[in-house]
Inverse folding.
């Protein structure tokens, strides 16, 4: 067997026999790293090649995948009901986002149920892992083994030695196989080969195992390495949230065993990540009837398959510059400009000399048009300095004509508001009235002016 050095672009996987400063395929600079390509003779290739088993699809026996429930509500929800026993999951987040903390919590939860866990780390020492475990775990199970090494060969040996049910790697970019020496750890070839070895280990029909890999994030907020790494695994999890923020969002961008786009919420505390099982209550500011404030309106967003009640806050102030500010970190600026134009033309609210700031409690991003009516009503409330009753909610998109538009999943949104005790729900016309609600009353409207008129008439004030 002969080996030669090739250069691989970390961004797109383009291969070159020599190093280049700029990749001709993706036009990225300084992304080439050295790798080792192994050559085998054609005779040896023919000798080692094994023909796969051919079978009719109708004759293939389908097996129900067994799931490992961790008891961490939001994690199990995002995974589709727990980790599948023969699955490979990769978890990534910005530095300090809580990847290692969440992985250690999952390891502890499954270890208490009798599963044998191997936690392999190439970034930290075993004493550092123990220090974190003492801080966030009440008691440490005897079923957790720690391996502080960067050799994937040692990891594979340890898996067989303890017969692990779950393998956690922190992180996949720090491990290397001796077979591909001298390619260093983090090299695209090493990362892909280490991941492939774990996939084969997890999906062994004689002994199935679950694998949770932590992936480093690059400057583009993507998993470091080749894009093929995401195609190789079964589930890709993104843990959103900065190091200084309390709120963390766990998003499944790929899931072969559950819903893609499912979102779970956690609060980062000194004792680790705490699952937020009722996010609708978490994202609402609790106020008494005597503490009503202007500039606040209630909407319902869909995070995955779950409706979440959110509070939208707006602040409108006089501008003393020729160009008033339009600020929002929780929605696209173009969307905000469009809504302000609708409000001026269809609602008769002049904002040409006003600064407008929009945000949501908890920092949730308004990626759905279902929140547009609530955004407009919060701005109107701030302009008029008049509070909206705290038990009112708004679910509708607003067209350029000022007409209210229906949005998807209306029934689940309305039922969530009814569960939370809201009394009046403003929606577009055509919403089903056959819903049996305990607290809420649906108020369908055709135009934005109709909603403003009902508010001015003193509904519930």
């Amino acid at each position: 067997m002969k080996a030669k050095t090739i250069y691989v672009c970390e961004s797109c996987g383009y291969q070159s026999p020599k190093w280049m400063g700029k990749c001709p395929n993706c036009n990225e600079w300084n992304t080439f790293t050295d790798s080792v390509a192994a050559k085998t003779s054609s005779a040896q290739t023919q000798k080692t090649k094994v023909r796969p088993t051919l079978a009719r699809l109708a004759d293939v026996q389908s097996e129900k995948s067994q799931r490992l429930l961790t008891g961490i509500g939001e994690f199990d929800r995002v995974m589709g009901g727990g980790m599948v026993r023969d699955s490979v999951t990769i978890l990534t987040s910005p530095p300090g986002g809580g990847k290692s903390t969440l992985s250690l919590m999952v390891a502890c939860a499954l270890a208490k149920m009798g599963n044998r866990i191997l936690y392999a780390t190439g970034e930290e020492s075993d004493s550092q892992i123990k220090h974190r475990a003492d801080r966030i775990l009440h008691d440490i199970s005897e079923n957790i083994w720690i391996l502080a090494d960067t050799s994937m060969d040692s990891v594979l040996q340890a898996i067989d030695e303890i017969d692990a049910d779950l393998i956690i790697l922190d992180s996949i970019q720090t491990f290397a196989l001796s077979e591909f020496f001298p390619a260093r750890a983090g090299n695209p070839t090493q990362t892909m080969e280490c991941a492939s070895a774990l996939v084969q280990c997890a999906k062994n029909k004689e002994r199935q195992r679950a694998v949770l890999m932590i992936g480093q994030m690059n400057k583009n907020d993507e998993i470091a390495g080749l894009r093929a790494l995401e195609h190789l695994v079964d589930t890709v999890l993104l843990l959103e949230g900065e190091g200084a923020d309390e709120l963390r969002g766990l998003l499944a961008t790929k899931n072969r065993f559950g819903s893609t786009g499912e979102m779970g919420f956690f609060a980062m505390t000194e004792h680790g990540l705490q699952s937020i099982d009722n996010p609708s209550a978490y994202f609402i500011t609790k106020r008494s009837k005597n503490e009503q404030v202007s500039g606040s309106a209630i909407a319902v967003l869909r995070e995955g398959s779950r409706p979440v009640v959110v509070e939208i806050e707006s602040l409108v102030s006089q501008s003393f510059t020729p160009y008033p500010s339009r600020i929002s970190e929780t929605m696209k600026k173009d969307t905000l400009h469009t809504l302000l134009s609708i409000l001026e033309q269809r609602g008769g609210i002049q904002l040409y000399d006003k600064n407008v700031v929009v945000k949501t409690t908890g920092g949730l991003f308004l990626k759905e048009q279902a929140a547009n009516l609530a955004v407009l009503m919060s701005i109107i409330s701030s302009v008029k300095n008049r509070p909206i009753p705290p038990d009112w909610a708004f679910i509708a998109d607003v067209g350029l004509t000022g007409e209210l538009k229906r949005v998807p999943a209306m029934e689940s949104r309305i039922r969530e508001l009814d569960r939370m005790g809201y009394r009046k729900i403003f929606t577009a016309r055509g919403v089903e009235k056959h819903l049996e609600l305990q607290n809420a009353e649906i108020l369908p409207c055709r135009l934005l002016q109709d909603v403003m008129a009902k508010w001015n008439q003193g509904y519930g004030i």
Summary: The CA atoms of residues 324 and 406 lie 32 Å apart. The longest strand covers residues 306-318. Confidence is low (pLDDT under 50) at residues 38-47. Residues 2-43 form one domain.
